[in-house]
Amino acid sequence: MKFMGDNKMNKNTKLILLVISALVLIIIFREEIKLVLTIIGIFVVAGLILQWLDKNKD
């Protein structure tokens, strides 16, 4: 992986690849995106609630 020697470049290319793959997935799964967002939202809310409960336990 000689062309990925520069660390800053490496981070930027990874970010760009992530964005591109995310866009491709959104285009492919346009119908399912609402379901996916709902599931992600549920996980985020559950995580926040668990963190909040953890803080209040002390």
Topology summary:
Layout: H1 7-28, H2 33-57
Quaternary class: single chain
Structural class by secondary-structure content = mainly alpha
Q: Which residues sit in consecutive blocks of at least 5 with pLDDT less than 50?
A: none
Strand content: under 5%
Transmembrane segments: 12-29, 35-53
Keywords: Membrane, Transmembrane, Transmembrane helix
Explain this structure to me?
This protein is mainly alpha-helical and 58 residues long. It has a domain of 28 residues. The chain has 2 helices and no strands. The relative contact order is 0.06.
Question: Summary?
Answer:
This protein is mostly helical. Helices cover 81% and strands 0% of the residues. It has a domain at 31-58.
Descriptive labels:
58 residues, mainly alpha, 2 helices, 81% helix
